[in-house]
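Re: the 305-residue chain
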Amino acid sequence: MTVAPSRMTTASRLGLIAALATGCLSVALMSAQPSRAENADPVVAKVNGAEIHESDVTMAEQELGPSLAQMDPSTKHQNVVSFLIDLKLAAKVAEDKKLQDSDDFKKRAAFAHDRLLMDALLGKEGKSAATEEAMKKVYDDAAKQIAGEQEVHARHILVETEDEAKQVEDELKKGADFAELAKKKSKDPGAADGGDLGFFTKEQMVPEFSNAAFALEPGKISDPVKSQFGWHIIKVEEKRSRKPPEFAQVKPQIETFVTRKAQADYVAKLRDGAKIERFDLAAAKPDAAAPAAATPDAKAEPKKK
């Protein structure tokens, strides 16, 4: 008995096809991988006898990426299977028409082949490098730099002129609440939060602002401070030594950093050991060996006869 695949809208099918337009060859090559044992990699559909496996669906999902982001898992799976059915049908017709014999197709297939091999190689190198030990070392080195660094929790009121800043200063000296005054007077986007800037390090603010804020003791209010943004009145709420986040909290970012660094280092090593000739750059450079154009010397005396 033939089982009809789940239906999807024409727009959805065309959307998936369009999303894959720049990488259709890589999916076609990947989906042609040898099948594994049926139990480990079940067949999800057949198209004129050609099998589509669960692994094909997984790889297609990775390739299609953002176009599937808004779909729930069930809808995503059904749409990708339907897309792979369309892919199989279209690919067979293209083969029958001998489109694979064109020079353009051969160049694109060669590019896709090289790209897949590069991705596989760099993926392997990155995965090998991202060990727990390597990630912990990156974390520890960064934590040492962070530990002991000062942070300030401050509020500010931003106005355009020095006179406005002095008026704000006078109101504060008369007992006005800083946060309430910030909501009324400050032109900063954080005015609605009472001018609250949260905690920041010295390097995270412009020098004029940081110098004033870090010179204040908690609870104190600055004189008017001028920066490129206008005039500030600053109140320091708290000071503390910065603490690094827990390793588990930043592990995904560290893993990405270690992986990409290993891949970049590996490519640099390959370049160093290769003979690379760039004829495009040579054509763009001026010919250093070409003689300079002869120009008359205005100061030279005429030859005597």
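The CA atoms of residues 26 and 112 lie 6 Å apart.
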